[in-house]
Amino acid sequence: MPIWNNRCLKDLKVSDAFLQTVLIVDDDRINRAVLAELLQRECRILLAKDGETALQRARDERSIDLILLDVSMPGMDGYEVLRRLRSEPQTANIAVIFITALTNEQDEERGLSLGAADYVVKPISPAIVKARVRNHLKLVAQRNELERLSEKDGLTGIANRRYFDKAFELAWRHAIRSGEPLSVGMIDVDHFKEYNDHYGHGAGDEALRQVAQALERAAGRPYDVVARYGGEEFVMLLPGLHELEPLLERLRRAVLDLNLPHARSRTAEVVTISCGGVVAFVSQTDKPAALLGWADKLLYRAKQQGRNRVLVWQGQKEGLFLPLGQGMASKPPESAG
Ligand SMILES: [Mg+2]
To answer: Where would one find coiled-coil regions in this protein (predicted)?
Structure first.
């Protein structure tokens, strides 16, 4: 049963409290049971009896915060498990504490130089293991919180470009593996400079906040990302989405419905947005930047055609898609819109 871990987090804000998970890896059933018993009130516990199982669980479970890793195990030993954890991006940053009966200094040095956070010698002292686990879980929680803050746009509260870049890279790789489409949209607030000039920067900031929130509400699927790309420009990432145009149209509508008066707009009486989007089936040879560049060109064209509109280029899995590499960036499709 998951247990909310408040004790490790008592110095953090309540809103930061989340379930922390510890994976215990030991070939000895008794050792696993002793550690699980010891920590069960501190965190959620997962168990693995060998290295292969541990690696599998670390890959499957997205939320492992800490691994207690036995060094001596038949088959793959703890050092090898750690080396493999570090070699995969998905598991590379999980904190690891070695728990071992090996007591010489070289063993300890080897473990630490492989990147273990700590080293505990068997027979364990329950109080010390508990304290060390607590400390490391707290560090992990603080690191996660910093990470979260560093990926959030200070003004609008939605994801920032740094977060987008990371999500885009993951989504790109997934799209190549899965053959699913990868949709991106670039969004720009129309006549925003005039808005700032007329209403002042404070009002401009508030308008951006409202637009950002409206975009985020209107997007809505779990893996969709709406991020501030810079200035009054936003970017969207929509993995697996085939029909981009209705969605961007919904966003355009949502911003219109905010009804923010814009006396200096030459497009409408209220704040509006323009959107350019591409539904792409990508392959190894394509460049992520080219896809964004393409969406940006469509956005530019939507602006030229009068703003407050959506232009989407729809890729086909069979047939027309994808012009490779450079071509994608330099030659926006004439069929756009
Ligand atoms: Mg062992």
So the answer is: none
